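Hi Q.,

Before the meeting this afternoon, I wanted you to have the zinc ion prediction in hand. No need to reply - just skim if you have a minute. The sequence and ligand are here:
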Amino acid sequence: MEISQETDVLIIAAHPDDAELSCGGTIVQLTASGKSVVIADCTRGELGSRGTAELRAQETINATKILGVSTRVNLGMSDGNIQLSQENIHSVISLIRRFRPKIILFNPPYERHPDHENVHRLVRTAVFQSGLTKIETYFEDTLQNTHRPKHIFSYMQTYEFQPSFYIDISDYFDVKTAAIRAYSSQVFVKDENDENEPVTFISKPDFMEMLEARARYFGALIGVKYAEPYLAIEPVGIPSFGIWL
Ligand SMILES: [Zn+2]
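Predicted structure with the ligand bound:
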């Protein structure tokens, strides 16, 4: 018998903290409304300049609880060297077929960190191949059924793109920020940071300010306080104007 489950939204990310930073508000909105959300981190972020892989693992557990997500998996790929290899493609296909998501959110195509771009390619390839019956994958020794999500969208990271749409996260911005602060070895948390650690792009106080300013700006564009932008990889249709009437 096939071991699988249905999931509303699967988030695939290169590193632990990518999900919190880029779509944390959306995740909290989903879990708060009872939707099933699974996060899959491709690596353990072991190349991060600050903290250790062990510390980051504990921070990830804490952040996951704050987001209200019950299932988070790690694909164990090597940080800084995510290849579009057959092994990695199969690993993502197996993930998609195991959780059978309706929607996948994943890293954008053009990014500052090469791992982010590589995961974008990897997911695009895996989503396509996951629908092919001749590509066989196994989970716990059982042959998996094919599966393709209905929609795939990229969240925004460092580099901007022209968003296809925005999600209103005004009610969830505080929880998103709390989940990000759980990564206290990586980001600036007042009175908690180790001054002996190297300063990185995301460990400066400016980074959290930038994150809030951007969410506020995107919110302003759609007339709400805070929003997260998304890129539709495929053309998206809406059922009718009825969703606004
Ligand atoms: Zn990342």
